[in-house]
Structure formats: C-alpha cells, structure tokens
Automatic annotation (TrEMBL), chains A, B:
Any coiled-coil regions, as ranges: none
Taxonomic lineage from the root: Bacteria, Pseudomonadati, Bacteroidota, Sphingobacteriia, Sphingobacteriales
Protein name: NUDIX hydrolase
Domain Nudix hydrolase intervals: 9-143
Tagged with keyword Hydrolase: yes
MF term (GO), any: hydrolase activity
Swiss-Prot/TrEMBL keywords: Hydrolase
Record InterPro entries: NUDIX_hydrolase-like_dom_sf, NUDIX_hydrolase_dom, WH-like_DNA-bd_sf, WH_DNA-bd_sf, WHD_NrtR
Superkingdom as given in the UniProt entry: Bacteria
Length: 229, 229
DNA sequence: ATATAGTGTGTAATTTTTACACTAAGTAAT
DNA sequence: ATTACTTAGTGTAAAAATTACACACTATAT
C-alpha cells in the first residue's frame, strides 16, 4: 500500500547481466568504470530508471545504448537494496538478465561517458566486480540455470537456425554438465517444439548437420505442460 | 552501475501478499484503506522502505506491525514499477510473499492508521483490489505454485507437527488439483525429509493420524537434488 | 584413396509415475 | 457392547520416462 508520497532520497537503478553466446563460450558484457566510486573496476552495465519509463523499458534502453540491439529477451529477476551496497547513499537496484546471440562483435556501440569501454568476458574467467555486482551476477546465473530447465530460453542464445549439437552445447554450458547426445535429442525432439529444416549447416569441414528452428506456435500449444531437464 | 546520485522523485515501497492457512482454506491478509486514493478499497498491506532498512527487514517489519509475528518465511518475488501504477506519482514497489500458519485469530494486532481494518480473506473469494494489487497477488500465487513443486515451503503453512493428510491438503490447495493419497505419501516420504513422530493427532472424532515433523537437517543433505511434484 | 571429425541413430535395463480399493482404528451414538 | 461413521493407512501391476551405451555414415581436406 502507498499513502502519502514523501520526497525520499532513495535512488533507483537497473543493472543488467547480459549473457551472450558466440557459439563457443558463455560471456557477459562488463564495462570498465570511468568514475568514482570503483573507478577502473569492472561492473555490470546499469542506469537510473527514467521518470516515465516502465522498468522493462528502462532495461531495454540500457541494453540498446550499449549494444545497439532491440527486441532482446530480458527478464527482471531480483531487487538488491542493502542500505550499504552503494558507498555514496542508498541505491536500490533491480537486476535484469538478457540472453543474446553474439555474431561478430559489431553489436558493440561506443559506450557512454561513465565507462571507458565495454567488453564481453567469458564467465569462466571474470574479474572482481564493483559494488555487489558479483552477488547480482551469481544470482542471475542461478536464475537462468533454473529457467533453462523449464522454459525454452536456450534458443535466445542461438541463431534462428541451429543444429542440435549447438543447442546441446548451450544446455551443457548453462547447466554445467555434459549430456548424452542420444538422450538429449530424444528428449528435446520429443517436446515437439523444433521444426526440422530442409537445410544443412554450411562452412564446416565435416559432415554438415541438419538445421532446426524453434517453433513458437508449437510451443504455445504445450502451455501448462512441464518441460524438464 | 550507479554514478552520481541525483535527487529523484521515485518512491519506493514494499507490498506483501501474506498467505495464511488455517487448516481448511488458503487466505490472504488484506487491509481496508482509510485514505485516498482508493479509500475504502481493499489492498495488500505495504509500506515505504525505511532509509536504513534492508529490503527483507522492511518486509518483516510490515508483517510484524500487522500481525505481531516474527520469524516468518518471506520471499521477495517481483518489482512493479509501471509509471502509472500509482495515481499520485511514481511509486516502485517490491512484492514479497509470506507463508503463515494461522491458529486462532490472535495474530492480528491493531492496525496502523492508514487502514480501517485488516482481514484474512479466502483466496477463492477476493474483493476488487486497489492499485495494481490484483496483478501483484496473481504473480505471487503463481510464484508459490511453482515454488512448492521444488522447495519445501508447504511446511511453513502448517503447525510444527502435522499429519500427511494436512500436508497433502496444502499441496492440493496451492497447486489447485487433487492428488492421489497413496502416491502422495510414497513420494513425500521418499524424499526422506519428514520425521515420523511417536505421537498421534488429538481431538478428532475418528482414527487419529500419525504426526510428522519436517526435518531441516535431512533436507540440507538433499541439497542439489530436485524435488518435484 | 585415405584420414579426420562430427552426425545420426536404437535398444534393453532401470526407475519413476500412475491408477486403483480395501481393511484398520478410533469415536459417537444407541 | 454393538453398530455406524469417518478417516488412516497400505501394495501392486501397468505404463511411461530415464539412463547407459557404440558404431556406421557423410562430408571435407590432404
């Protein structure tokens, strides 16, 4: 409930964990800060929520400003509001994660002034992060680990047309363990949400794999049924 | 990321969906508003986050002020921040749910001045709610529906000692469908997190059921394994 | 022609899930 | 003490899902 509206000093921001997949590794986008506090540290990209923006809009804007990308899958997952999380005052931050297919590094725009640069860094080898951003990242990874078991979010990290091996690779990276090829295929095809294309992988120096596409319409029909890995 | 700290007009509140179980029904605690906007409407209890409170502390405080209870299981689950959700200005609110065993109505303290009264109302028959509280409630229910399938939260709604039938009842109410008694028992006992007591139910006019207790230590050992209903 | 590297496929054993109905135990009423 | 009533407590067989496991095929590169 909300009654009177006092003028309070709480600042309200959004921080994003942008997960990217380049076909090999899972990476996240970090910026190198150009300002105190934590000048020269790596941090999650984020910003203040504008007065007339919805939260989701604000998250999309932050992502757009950094990458030039629109229409990316993003989800809010937690609010961090410890009174001491920011050395200069109370800042409550909402965490979003996004899932992005990386193809070439053209997605990186010139970054805004508060950062020296932005970089995609593999999650297997992250630097120390500013503020409580390690905690925010950890919780984000945990979230997608759980999500991928029940929702078709893996596709967001892949090009529209992908091979089953690529898909399996994404699952293995996120869940963090190897899966059996035959069982994986049996299961994922069993859900009936993939459309097999008349097209093969190109540019590989071995037998080319069949390409598939995620079929949203078939997925919609599944509604209510549990997907589980 | 957070840079300078501008003085912004955003107000920051917490709203709580307090789920209570009295042995029969699932209820939530609603307050009847005494102030504009939405005077005389039912609303979720909530409040402004204090300047030195953590978010979890703030949620616990709100719950304590309303019910006199401490140590209740609460979890933050979503932030609602549509620019128009509050008619008098921008209010971003964090939603928490809590799970409470109701035993006698002694838990209800005199409520603060912004409310006429507070009442536990069965979720099967809720009034129209103020602001976007219907949406907040809906998302909260959805959340515990998913949660109860993978985490031992049902026990929070029951007395320390409970019968398997009572436990099944809670599952049925939250998940929203009937379960088979034998299969339920087989499965839940199979997890090995219940301790059978040497004690029977009292005060019933039929064969008394065995009482059980949730065993946190055994549960801790399960860590990593999936519980699934 | 041959080496190489990843694709694509089936089955049997095991485990988990589902569906299903009767007897036992305690209380209340007579 | 008999009876009626109400819920507790239990097992099994069939079906479905999961696991473990290995080899032949195909495209390319040399």
């Amino acid at each position: 409930m909300e009654q009177i509206l006092p003028h309070l000093d709480s600042v309200f921001s959004i921080d994003c964990v942008l997960f990217g997949f380049d076909g090999k590794e899972l990476k996240i986008l970090l910026i190198e800060r150009n300002e105190e506090p934590f000048k020269d540290w790596w941090a999650l990209p984020g910003n203040i929520v504008g007065p007339d923006e919805s939260l989701d809009q604000s998250a999309s804007r932050i992502l757009y400003e950094l990458t030039g990308l629109r229409g990316i899958f993003m989800e809010q997952y937690y609010a961090f509001g410890d009174p001491n999380r920011h050395p200069q005052g109370r800042v409550i931050t909402l965490a979003y994660y996004a899932l992005i297919r990386l193809g070439g590094d053209k997605e990186l725009r010139p970054v805004s002034n508060y950062a020296k640069r932005a970089n995609w860094l593999p999650i297997t080898d992250l630097p120390r992060l500013a503020f409580d951003h390690q905690k925010i990242y950890d919780k984000g990874l945990e979230k997608i680990k759980r999500r991928i078991k029940h929702q078709p979010i893996a596709f967001e990290l892949l090009p529209e047309k992908f091979t089953l091996t690529q898909l399996q690779h994404v699952y293995e990276l996120i869940i963090g363990k190897k899966l059996d090829k035959r069982n994986f295929r049996k299961k994922i095809l069993g859900f009936g949400v993939l459309k097999e294309l008349d097209e093969k992988q190109k540019g590989v120096s071995y037998r080319a794999a069949t390409l598939y596409r995620f079929d949203k319409r078939k997925y919609a029909k599944l509604f209510g049924k549990e997907i589980s890995f």
